[in-house]
Automatic annotation (TrEMBL):
It comes from the Eukaryota. PANTHER family: GLUCOSAMINE-6-PHOSPHATE ISOMERASE, GLUCOSAMINE-6-PHOSPHATE ISOMERASE 2. Its EC number is 3.5.99.6. This is Glucosamine-6-phosphate deaminase 2. The keyword Coiled coil applies.
């Protein structure tokens, strides 16, 4: 594991966004060859997401062949609730980039069987590589 220490939040956000951007570009994703990305939620990654959106809008980065998997979701909170991680990700990231909505995976915190939801989510991650 590499530890990177930077002076402030903005520098850390930019470093993380550049790292993700470079990894996607170097992978050369294409139809049938998707880059898989795990994403956290909350205030910490917000700056990184803003930079990734900037790279996309500048034409430097595409998410067309990227599959994402979010790490968490609240149980019992409707997905359209403004505090749900589903809403957070769509409002703060996904709707600003060219990702196929079918490739943006977020757990369903309202599934009738939460264990089955988690098992199916894990299977999707395994299938994505």
């Amino acid at each position: 594991m590499r530890l990177v220490i930077l002076d402030d939040y903005d520098l850390a956000s930019e470093w993380a966004a550049k790292y993700i951007c470079n990894r996607i570009i170097q992978f050369k994703p294409s139809q049938g060859r998707y880059f898989t990305l795990g994403l956290p939620t909350g205030s910490t990654p917000f700056g990184c997401y803003k930079k990734l959106i900037e790279y996309h809008k500048n034409g430097d980065l595409s998410f067309k062949y990227v599959k994402t998997f979010n790490m968490d979701e609240y149980v019992g909170l409707p997905r359209n609730h403004p505090e749900s991680y589903h809403s957070y990700m769509w409002n703060n990231f996904f709707k600003h980039i060219d990702i196929d909505p079918n490739n943006a995976h977020i757990l369903d915190g309202n599934a009738l069987d939460l264990q089955a939801e988690c098992d199916a989510f894990e299977k999707k991650i395994e299938e994505a590589g």
